[in-house]
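TICKET: design request
STATUS: open
ATTACHED STRUCTURE:
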């Protein structure tokens, strides 16, 4: 037994885990532990133990913990762990987190903790550091208090950054670990984040004009106040950026993500009802913790038009690809795009056939996409739901900064690329940073949203959420495009798909909600809707068998 044992035993007794019914376990899902907030106190405490072990294993580097349930309703919350470079927790460690969280008693918890320390050869006397933040959910208070108990019991140094967007916490983790090194990521403060983004935004815009007003729906989440704060850091004499922040009420928890936000827009395929959509206004929506972004406008002639994560991905890949060519770096840097099965087939065709870039498909969850994107010098990854970013390798950043330009045009391209590498959050998808990226690209191209939408035509598609009694019965393969179980379900989906032109459909269990998701696309809107309904009924039936 280590000298932490008594402290863990005592603190664990105050932060008990809620037992699940027999045969059920808590799992580290798409984005950490996420569920009804009243189940999470004990979990948050145990995540503190895990984060301390992880920090000790990594020579005392700071580990991040974010308390958020992002796009989920206000009654939910979640806890996720961030690695030293600001990336999601290494996947091998998810099972250690799961082992701690599912320990059946305080005593068992201490045993699992010590077993892990022994197995992973962790010196429990070494120093450890954790930094954490939370979104605006009221339940966040008690969850960070439970987390802090876990950190205190294990003698872990910690910094509470209070209320943050998820990407801000990721930024702060990386900034903390790189402080004072040649790879310093930015100042270790929320203000440092705003300053970095604002400075890079001015450099990336390079005097171009942003046309009209941008209306930003913040889902009544943490993105509202943080975006307003960020806007104060843009020097008005250098960039004129007219932003109207809407749905930024964080005082009434019940309105969080309610009829607003990126998830609402993407799944309902319409603008939030409030404020009443005005034709022609360039608009975008963030989600509850500001890591997803969807653009849209209501066209006076054709109605609602959405520019989702696939669109942001192809826009960024095309713009950055052109800059790399102008900078004379085309033969030196490998650019690639990473998507999931939810990517619209038309976007994949556009990227492979028109942009001539490789596309790799991974399972859902930015943790998967991020990892694969790191295999490129410039890896563009976005999920269709608007979650994503662009990663630049050290070689790419080095080339932007140190290549000797042969012409003014080449210098301009290199300077813009260097600015983009600072503007784009390299740790995780960040709605505020992604929004600035889109604005920079539209300004450079002098494009409206309509120009952007004209690059290709989306295949009509529909996403449906299906409540089932046991979502864990649905197991997938082939980057989640096919069901392995329950037996027979995939055959029925295949039969349904065959009935429609250019059709594709798949179903999978959500890793953040207690439900399955069904995606369908087809040649026409009616067919896509019909197919989605059919497959949803198949899933409903198998889910209740
Ligand atoms: C999280 C993940 C995303 C994922 C989304 C939905 O987003 O970070 O990568 O796409 O969940 O996942 P699922 O379909 O498994 O529920 P967020 O914004 O909720 O943190």
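STATUS: resolved
RESOLUTION: sequence designed for all positions
ATTACHED SEQUENCE:
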């Amino acid at each position: 037994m280590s000298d932490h044992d008594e402290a863990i035993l005592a603190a664990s007794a105050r932060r008990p885990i809620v037992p699940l019914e027999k045969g059920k376990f808590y799992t580290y899902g798409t984005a950490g532990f996420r569920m009804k907030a009243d189940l999470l106190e004990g979990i948050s405490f145990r995540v503190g133990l895990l984060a301390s072990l992880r920090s000790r294993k990594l020579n005392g580097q700071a580990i991040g913990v974010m308390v958020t349930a992002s796009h989920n309703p206000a009654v939910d919350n979640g806890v996720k762990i961030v690695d030293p470079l600001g990336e999601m927790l290494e996947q091998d460690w998810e099972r250690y987190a799961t082992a701690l969280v599912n320990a059946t008693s305080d005593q068992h918890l201490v045993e699992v903790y010590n077993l892990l320390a022994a197995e992973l050869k962790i010196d429990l006397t070494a120093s450890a550091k954790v930094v954490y933040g939370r979104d605006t959910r009221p339940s966040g208070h008690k969850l960070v208090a439970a987390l802090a108990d876990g950190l205190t019991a294990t003698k872990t140094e910690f910094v509470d950054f209070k209320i943050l967007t998820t990407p801000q916490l990721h930024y702060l983790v990386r900034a903390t670990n790189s402080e004072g090194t040649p790879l310093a990521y930015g100042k270790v403060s929320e203000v440092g984040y705003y300053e970095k983004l604002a400075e890079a935004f001015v450099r990336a815009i390079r005097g171009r004009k942003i046309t009209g007003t941008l209306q930003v729906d913040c889902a009544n989440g943490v993105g509202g106040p943080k975006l307003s704060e960020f806007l104060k850091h843009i020097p008005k004499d250098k960039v004129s950026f007219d932003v109207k922040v809407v749905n930024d009420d964080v005082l009434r928890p019940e309105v969080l993500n309610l009829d607003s936000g990126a998830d609402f827009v993407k799944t309902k395929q319409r603008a939030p009802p409030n404020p009443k959509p005005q034709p022609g206004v360039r608009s975008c929506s963030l989600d509850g913790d500001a890591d997803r972004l969807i653009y849209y406008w209501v066209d006076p002639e054709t109605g609602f038009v959405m520019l989702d994560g696939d669109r942001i991905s192809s826009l960024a890949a095309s713009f950055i690809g052109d800059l790399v060519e102008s900078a004379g770096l085309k033969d030196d840097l490998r650019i690639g795009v990473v998507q999931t099965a939810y990517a619209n087939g038309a976007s994949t065709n556009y990227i492979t056939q028109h942009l001539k870039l490789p596309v790799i498909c991974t399972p859902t969850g930015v943790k998967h996409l991020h990892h694969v994107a790191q295999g490129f010098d410039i890896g563009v990854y976005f999920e269709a739901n608007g979650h994503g970013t662009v990663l630049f390798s050290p070689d790419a950043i080095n080339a932007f900064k140190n290549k000797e330009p042969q012409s003014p045009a080449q210098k301009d391209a290199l300077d813009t690329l260097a600015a983009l590498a600072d503007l784009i959050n390299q740790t995780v998808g960040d709605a505020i940073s992604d929004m600035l990226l889109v604005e920079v690209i539209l300004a450079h191209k002098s494009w409206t949203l309509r120009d952007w939408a004209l690059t290709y035509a989306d295949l009509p598609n529909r996403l449906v959420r299906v409540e089932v009694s046991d979502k864990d019965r649905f197991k997938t393969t082939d980057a989640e495009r096919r069901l392995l179980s329950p037996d027979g379900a995939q055959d029925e989906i295949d039969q349904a798909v065959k009935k429609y032109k250019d059709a594709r459909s798949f179903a999978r269990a959500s890793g953040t909600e207690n439900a399955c998701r069904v995606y369908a696309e087809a040649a026409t809107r009616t067919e896509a809707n019909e197919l989605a309904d059919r497959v949803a009924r198949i899933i409903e039936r198998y889910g209740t068998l």
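CLOSING REMARK: The chain has a mean pLDDT of 96. Residues 3-163 form a domain with the Alpha-D-Glucose-1,6-Bisphosphate; Chain A, domain 3 fold (CATH 3.40.120.10).
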